[in-house]
Amino acid sequence: MALQTLDDCSSSEAHLAAIDDTQFHDSCHLDDVDSLRTRLSSCAKDINLWLQSRRLQLNADKTEAIWFGSKANVAKLNNMDSYIHVGPCQI
Hints:
With 91 residues, this protein is α+β, with helices and mostly antiparallel strands. The chain has helices spanning 33-53, 71-77; strands spanning 3-5, 14-18, 21-25, 85-86, 89-90.
């Protein structure tokens, strides 16, 4: 399996890519969700460009975002814009 670290994506703490699996994560306080969304969307864009440069394609329809936190904080996300932009899609 092809595996490579994505060093060019500076907006996320960890990023690792395999041909069929790309993961990245970051963290923030609840009042910094907008900043985190911007960073993760930027990282998704960087990953997409990296994949395209290798003639691979990011399937935004199969891309997922998972928010972790206390039950109370995750419930507060329901009232906020917590989408991340991946290409033309919002996840």
